Amino acid sequence: MLSIMRDYEWMTELDLDLHSLRIVRAISDTGTITGAARVLGFSQPAISQHLQRAEARLGVPLVIRAGRGIRLTEAGQLLARHAVTISSALDAAAGDLAELAGMRTGTARIAGFPTASSTIIPRLLHTMASQHPGIVVTYIEAEPPEAIGMLGEGAVDLAITFSYPGDRADPHRDVASGLHLTPLFTEEVVLALPARHPLAVEEAVDVSLLDRERWIAGCPLCRGHLLAVCEAAGFDPVIDYETDNAVAVLNLVAADVGVALLPRLALATAAVPPGAAIRATAPVSTRDIQLVSHAGAVRVPSLAATIAAIRAVPGADWGLTPVGAVARAAAQ
């Protein structure tokens, strides 16, 4: 606590501005001035000039050159650590002011993963348009690591993401302080295999019996999950095909060229062709879906309304199980 107070007193005495904090945070996230300029929507010279003025005003260097790139100094790293917390505090302040003014309008910028784009997101946008017409909601598709990065950079307000239990590459493990994770759903990960495959007659297929199959892998996180599942079953999968397009995966399976693991959500809007079969895996495999936001987001009316609408989406329509239902079932 004493260290935090000293940092605060030091920054206050040196008249630190919010734009400098945003720049330093963006450099920390992207690793370059060019990347920071792209994220913040400024030119590279403008970012460089602002940094020079900030360093002159503060009396300490914030960045140093390292080979062809740059890295933050100790002072720059200190500011980057404070930036996320300060951003959350600003969200909270904006929320308090909005409540005081009775604001009923606003914006909500959302990032979400591909299979959410055709299921959760359309339902959410319909709800927001009908129940909160004054709130402008925008959406961009991004895999979880990118979505979390965009949230940290301030490019979006909310990120709908997924992760696999026990995944060593889980991007949520590095979620910065000041960000909040809300579990939403758990979904089953199923096996897609050719309908004429001998194991297609089983309701649940033992993964260890698939050690000689050719596999179709998806996005990096899904590929990592496939590797982990097969490792637990005692073999390394032979991955001959890679695509994160669920329709393509199902048609490759129907063509009898390989087998694949697919999250249940991927089947919600993709018709299973006649030559493919969907079966449970043994042991059961699952994926978690969650919402990531700044800690102060619930105090911003437009974001609070959007978060409530996200949590109210009926995941059962696509075979998703609300996290609360999982906990209740485990307790029984």
User: How confident is the prediction overall: mean pLDDT?
Assistant: 87
Total number of helical segments?
12
β-strand percent reads 15-25%
Proper CATH architecture of the largest domain = 3-Layer(aba) Sandwich
Radius of gyration: 23 Å
| Fourth-level CATH superfamily of the largest domain | Periplasmic binding protein-like II
Q: Tell me, briefly, the overall form.
A: globular
Number of strands: 13
- Main sheet specs: 11 strands, mixed
**Helix/strand order:** HHHHEEHEHHEHEEEEHEHEEEHEH
The CATH class label of the largest domain is: Alpha Beta
What name does the CATH topology of the largest domain carry? Answer: D-Maltodextrin-Binding Protein, domain 2
Distance between the termini: 42 Å
Number of domains: 3
Question: Which stretches are low in confidence, meaning pLDDT under 50 for 5 or more residues running?
Answer: 1-13, 326-332
Q: What portion of residues is helical?
A: 40-55%
Secondary-structure content class: alpha/beta
Protein name: LysR family transcriptional regulator
Pfam family, one: HTH_1
Keywords: DNA-binding, Transcription, Transcription regulation
Domain HTH lysR-type: 16-73
Structure description:
Strands 3, 4, 5, 6, 7, 8, 9, 10, 11, 12 and 13 form an eleven-stranded mixed β-sheet that branches. The chain has a two-stranded antiparallel ribbon with strand order 1-2. It folds into three domains: 87 residues, Arc Repressor Mutant, subunit A, CATH 1.10.10; 117 residues, Periplasmic binding protein-like II (D-Maltodextrin-Binding Protein, domain 2), CATH 3.40.190; 101 residues, D-Maltodextrin-Binding Protein, domain 2. α2 crosses α5, α3 packs across α4 and α7 crosses α11. The longest helix has 28 residues. β8, α9 and β9 form a beta-alpha-beta unit. By secondary structure, it is α/β, with parallel strands linked by helices. 36% of the residues are buried. It is 43% helix and 24% strand.
